[in-house]
Amino acid sequence: MKSTALITGASKGLGAEFARLFASKQVDLILVARSENELKEIKSELENRFNISVRTIVSDLSLPENVRSVYDEIKADRIEVDYLVNNAGFGDFGDFSDTEWERHEQMINLNMTALTQFCYLFLQDWISRGRGKILNVASTAAFQPGPGMSVYFASKAYVASFSQAIAYECRKHGITVTALCPGPVKTNFGKAARMKHPNGFVKGMNTPSPAEVVAFGYRAMMKGRTLAIHGRLNRIVANIVRFIPRSWQLYLSAKVISW
Ligand SMILES: NC(=O)c1ccc[n+]([C@@H]2O[C@H](COP(=O)([O-])OP(=O)(O)OC[C@H]3O[C@@H](n4cnc5c(N)ncnc54)[C@H](OP(=O)(O)O)[C@@H]3O)[C@@H](O)[C@H]2O)c1
Predict the structure, then answer these.
(1) Which positions fall inside the Ketoreductase domain (predicted)?
(2) Please, are residues 54 and 47 in contact by the beta-carbon 8 Å criterion?
(3) Which one, out of 5, 29, 86, 121, has a CA that is 20 to 30 A from the CA of 257?
(4) Nearest CA to 107 among 121, 120, 88, 85?
């Protein structure tokens, strides 16, 4: 029987790569984002290349009521979701007090509330049937505070913490939850976050391709791993940072973000 993956933020970047990878595995797709045209292009690309069905839902998930609407739309069509990829998210560069409140609010709603509500809604269905896989896209930003991107770093710390906790709870139900923590990847992220070096994230840094990060995340999800940090250097830094005094963490993090 065919399975279905729901991928949020699938119009570009990591989400679009997740769509391509799931499609190559013959998994039907439900793709959610705001950009209708980009979703349509991905739908036609994937339906032409692979023998799958792709449904697109245009929705702004930073509006809390839309998460429920997306879920209700899927239920109304009796589609059973097997894989949930909570990927939609954005960051913002600048001091907390200098940024418009609406940006913070949208980020909190999208990066945390939408992701949490989708997990909640699908777990209600999955627990009785005893299967399902969730992949929540966190970040290496999860492992220390981020002066200059305070709400974003805090939101990713939430995603990593929340995902690990529910992964533990869900084990007894046969459901896995994976938090994927990429370091910088070349996508539209830097531009959307109004960063200084939108194409390289950190100036001069070699970044992996979205396809490489997504393949890593996909393998981790399929193996049911709880925390998946992409890249050896990122894994080393994420572990070392725990033993560094908090004042140093803040100083170093602020330096890297404002590089
Ligand atoms: N790139 C990096 O360096 C990096 C590193 C670590 C973690 N991440 C995380 O990876 C995830 C994907 O980011 P990306 O790098 O692929 O960035 P991206 O290229 O900017 O893609 C972001 C995706 O989220 C969607 N999105 C944004 N706001 C939305 C909203 N209000 N409602 C619905 N969808 C929305 C975008 O689609 P529309 O604009 O069409 O809505 C797009 O499909 C994010 O959670 C990000 O935090 C990225």
Answers:
(1) 3-188
(2) yes
(3) 86
(4) 88
* CA angle in degrees (0–180, nearest 5) for 229-231-234: 70
User: How many domains are contained in the chain?
Assistant: 1
3-state secondary structure of 47: helix
Please choose from 8, 32, 34 the residue to mutate so as to test ligand 1's pocket, defined by most ligand atoms within 8 A of CB.
34
Q: Does residue 205 carry a pLDDT above 80?
A: no
SS3 44: helix
For residue 85, what are the domain limits?
A: 4-257
Residue-wise pLDDT tens digits, 155-190: 999 999 999 999 999 999 999 999 999 999 999 999
Task: Check: CB of residue 8 under 8 Å from CB of residue 114.
Answer: yes
Cα distances (Å, whole numbers) of residue 206 to 141, 202, 218, 230, 255: 17, 9, 22, 14, 18
Where are the alpha helices (H) located in the chain, listed in sequence order?
Answer: 13-24, 36-49, 64-76, 101-107, 115-129, 150-170, 189-192, 210-223, 232-240, 246-257
Give the CATH number for residue 163: 3.40.50.720
Pocket test for ligand 1, best of 187, 205, 207, 212 (most atoms within 8 A of CB): 187
Cβ–Cβ under 8 Å, residues 142 and 163: no
118 ligand 1 Cβ < 6 A: no
204 has a pLDDT exceeding 70: no
201: left (phi over 0), alpha (psi -120 to 50) or beta: left
Structure tokens that stand for 69 in this block: 């609407």
- β-strand pairing of 54-58 with 83-86: unpaired
